[in-house]
From TrEMBL:
Highest taxon of source: Eukaryota
Official protein name in the record: Dynein heavy chain tail domain-containing protein
GO biological process, one term: microtubule-based movement
Record-annotated Dynein heavy chain tail domain positions: 3-108
Stored PANTHER family: DYNEIN AXONEMAL HEAVY CHAIN 12, MALE FERTILITY FACTOR KL5
Annotated organism of origin: Scyliorhinus torazame (Cloudy catshark)
Taxonomic classification: Eukaryota, Metazoa, Chordata, Craniata, Vertebrata
Stored Pfam families: DHC_N1
GO cellular component, one term: axonemal dynein complex
Amino acid sequence: KSSDILKSTRGMSIVRKYNKVAYVLVKFEVLYHKAWTKEISTMKYVLQATLLIRDQETEKMYSNFDHRILEILREAKCMLKMDLEVPELAKRLLKTEQMLKTNSNNLEVHCI
C-alpha cells in the first residue's frame, strides 16, 4: 500500500526532503515577488523615454522602445495567475498591452 511506503523510514525521509524543497521554493517565490514589485516602481522612467532616436551621423531613426516593458507584462500575468499582488503601474500596462505590442512592432518594422 502507498500509506505503508510513506510510513517507512525511507518514505518519511523523502517526505521531509520534499517539505524542505517546498519551503525553499515558497521562500524564493516571496523574495522574487518582493524584488519584482520594487523593480516595477523604478520603471516609471522607462515609460517616459523617447521612442525614436536619430543617429547623429547617419540621420537614421531607431526604435528606443524598452523591451523590459514586454517582460513586465509577461511577469505581471504570471503573478496574477499565482494570486500575487501586482503594482498599479503593471496593471495599467496590462490594460494597454495590445497597443504597446502593436506600437513596438510598428517601430521595429519602420526603423529597420
